[in-house]
Amino acid sequence: MAYKTDIQIAREANKLKIQEIGAKLGIPEDDLLPYGHDKAKVSQSFINGVQDRDNGKLILVTAINPTPAGEGKTTTTVGLGDGLNRIGKKAAICIREASLGPNFGMKGGAAGGGHAQIVPMEDMNLHFTGDFHAITSAHALLSAMIDNHIYWGNELDIDQRRIVWRRVVDMNDRALRQVNVSLGGVSNGFPREDGFDITVASEVMAILCLSNDLSDLQKRLGDMIVAYRRDRTPVFARDLKADGAMTVLLKDAMQPNLVQTLENNPAFVHGGPFANIAHGCNSVIATKTALKLADYVVTEAGFGADLGAEKFMNIKCRKAGLAPAVVVCVATVRAMKMNGGVAKADLGTENVEAVRQGCPNLGRHIENLKSFGVPVVVAINHFLTDTDAEVQAIKDFVASMGAEAILSRHWELGSEGSEALATRVAEIADADTANFAPIYPDDMPLADKIQTICQKIYRADAATMDDKILKQLRDWEEQGYGDLPVCMAKTQYSFSTDPTQRGAPTGHRVPVREVRLSAGAGFVVAVCGEIMTMPGLPRHPSAETIKLNADGQIEGLF
Amino acid sequence: MAYKTDIQIAREANKLKIQEIGAKLGIPEDDLLPYGHDKAKVSQSFINGVQDRDNGKLILVTAINPTPAGEGKTTTTVGLGDGLNRIGKKAAICIREASLGPNFGMKGGAAGGGHAQIVPMEDMNLHFTGDFHAITSAHALLSAMIDNHIYWGNELDIDQRRIVWRRVVDMNDRALRQVNVSLGGVSNGFPREDGFDITVASEVMAILCLSNDLSDLQKRLGDMIVAYRRDRTPVFARDLKADGAMTVLLKDAMQPNLVQTLENNPAFVHGGPFANIAHGCNSVIATKTALKLADYVVTEAGFGADLGAEKFMNIKCRKAGLAPAVVVCVATVRAMKMNGGVAKADLGTENVEAVRQGCPNLGRHIENLKSFGVPVVVAINHFLTDTDAEVQAIKDFVASMGAEAILSRHWELGSEGSEALATRVAEIADADTANFAPIYPDDMPLADKIQTICQKIYRADAATMDDKILKQLRDWEEQGYGDLPVCMAKTQYSFSTDPTQRGAPTGHRVPVREVRLSAGAGFVVAVCGEIMTMPGLPRHPSAETIKLNADGQIEGLF
Fold this sequence. Notes:
Two copies of one chain form a homodimer.
Chain A: H1 6-11, H2 18-24, E1 32-34, E2 40-42, H3 44-49, E3 57-63, H4 73-86, E4 91-95, E5 111-113, E6 116-119, H5 121-125, H6 131-151, E7 167-169, E8 179-181, E9 192-194, E10 196-198, H7 203-210, H8 214-223, E11 225-228, E12 234-236, H9 243-250, E13 257-261, E14 266-269, H10 284-293, E15 296-300, H11 305-320, E16 326-331, H12 333-339, H13 352-370, E17 376-381, H14 388-400, E18 404-408, H15 410-413, H16 415-430, H17 446-457, E19 462-464, H18 467-481, E20 486-489, E21 509-511, E22 514-518, E23 523-527, E24 547-548, E25 554-555
Parallel strand pairs in A: 3-15, 3-16, 4-14, 4-15, 7-10, 16-17, 17-18, 19-21, 20-23
Antiparallel strand pairs in A: 1-2, 2-13, 5-6, 6-13, 8-9, 11-12, 13-14, 22-23, 24-25
Helix pairs in contact in A: 4-16, 6-9, 8-9, 12-13, 13-14
């Protein structure tokens, strides 16, 4: 039997007009701002009007540490959403938007895969509804205003050596990582060192995704620290009077985008902060809006549960007042085998023992997730090569952890394949057994928050921080930032900082190399490894083969 | 009587849904790709389907040299379009899109003014339908691919000192005019000098506006010269295999945008190339589409007639096979007075003699426009302070030139005020007296083309070009670029290169400082003065006061 590619399946989708998708959630046509026939933004006035409604149940989809075998977290998110709708539940999906630039380096991805996808796939990998362009513009405006302020006399006394605001562009362009600007003489300003990050790394992106509404957005934009003076006091975006105009540029970008699954179920795709130097979840406003409109909202978090779910719980849920009813942790037979030591080339061969060997990685994630007070279900995302014995090995292991694993075949069969998973997840959500709480309190010292995550989640002996870092954290506490949560920037491939250490390592230490304050987004970033905020293009970027074919379809993007 | 501001009038507009505007032109709902409820793009399949239809009459609105008094060229374009619809003609308007960045420096403008405006004004001054963001992205992709090519071994043998492709951003950011890139060591590439222009100065913008369709677009993108080798042979965007992916990024941006006037008449707003280093007209695809859908299409060209209309005729019409049926040259009593030597502060006082003194500027434009073989009508855009005697002075002068001047009060009264102008313009267009031809043939040597424009249009004694420039032009002729038209980059304020020389100067020379080849757009730029391709922000940019008010309306942008 020949299987179709993701793009073939996506192109054969019988999409409904976006107004019909909106109608499923009770959104009137006038409150949908359409972008073409299959995308729309939900109006702020409509969102304002539903605030008194009860919330639906929030379901987080997370996963084991990613392996080259592929886990299918988004695929499972979509499959579960479709499955819930199939069993008669009113369910919506919330995921992140894709960044444009990287698609021209490596091939872009679908949102989901097989028969569990969100469409229109082409648009979602290109300009979509322009949100990221708006973020790039708002960011660029502030950049220009900083140098312009200095040019006209520097009333705020900005120390030009201590400008911490870098520029951004939504393109993989390594030549811009480190630049000198304002060259060429008097009329171009004061030369200084600068650099560009990719747009998803902008603090503006993190802020857009954590803001409750436009006034919250403006406040947070104003709170951003762009530079320091010689006396080390911070200069805020507000001091440059940039916050109002940035908010105007982001007005439409703040509105959640509505699209649909292959099965015509509603999906919000909104925001896309980095999962390392930021928190890696879709926007708060999309999640909160979905919770007002649907009885079940399925969302996901970036990377594995040690990074993505931890930040979802400790940053997004804490700050937005959200609480998941149940967490679904995605695992696959193949990934368990890789954790059990099997090479990628050998994954097609049955190896029950290797599956068992790899399960401790999953087990630790289950324990961690439970520590937030939420019930956990494991979704075994089915691959065609999986054997019954291998699947049973995972089920047995998960049962031994006091949880339940359910095989789900949404990739192959769509919602028909995820019915069992959806039924069980809905039962658990309806049972209201969750008692969610972040794993550290707001008023814990920043260094202790880092230690808590490293010890309780990564199971490290300790985080190591030198005196300079400890002093920096204390300084921020004195400046009133002590209540902020911590955003860990660590490899996603291991519980440790060594990406090759699969399974469930112990006895390691987590060296914190650097800490950064995102005062507008509202977190302190602890950098525990190399963090690339501006990717480069490969030797033969996919851009070389991307083109329109004779039918006007895009080739080479997927 | 207190008059309302442009923004007040625009906000009170009774906009129709964009589908109703499309219906006026016979565009089915499915062929309109909506962006919100009041903007839409016209589908390529619909455009393909109307190619066999007859064309409507093309009416160009141009003006005298701009003065600080304001001429109201766009206002007259809109007023004339509304007037034509009022007298029962099926008319559409075509104008350019506004650039986002400059609105955060000085206050942004309406499209038109008073009761002759195009809406939605806020969107048109911000992201609109994302066209300029798409151009910025496509440009940025090529930029990244150039440095990436060098990074991975430079197979094409690009001379890093001779990269002529600069980067772009849609923001006024003087700090980026001249930069050094690829600093910071091996992994960031080979350091070199670079700089950023504003997006409207991108050759990609000029190409989008001159392309007939997506395959023409891709060919032209491939034709762009990005760098030279040590042996001075050019490296094309096609050599980097960037043209296909750039076309994909520009796929939607190529489709014309449909909006409406305050009187609910259709207006295409599409493309916005610089009027100095590029040709300064809206897109060919918008104009051609409008001509298939309406009986009369009113369009405008940037700056005064010496630059804008000349390029419209010699570049856009020549290359796209268009021919205007009539040209409307906008003049005002106030601008005539300024040309006659009156200071701006004294414009409110009647001064018939000064009007007469200033008229030669208008007279020369009339002569020039007639030299293209098209009938000319002068529209006197009425200001409330104009006296009858002043208006009559212009009418008498224009009559002495063998043309006709008509007072038009569209700013104050909408189409009621432009009925007379519309009636006369339609009569002339219907009489089919035009016998359009560009003023130089394709096969004239490039240097002679420059001389022709300088002598016939600017009435200079000569253009002066040194040997280096003459050799460069001959080299391009040998390389096969001799058939290209010339795009003049000169001050818009005078027929001469001295912006303070109002009226109708003679005896001047036009020094050509530099020539540039836009091989993809298809013209040779002759630079005759300082050309700013990256503006800066003023001491107090308007961004400082732009914000959302309590009603969610944008303040400070206008």
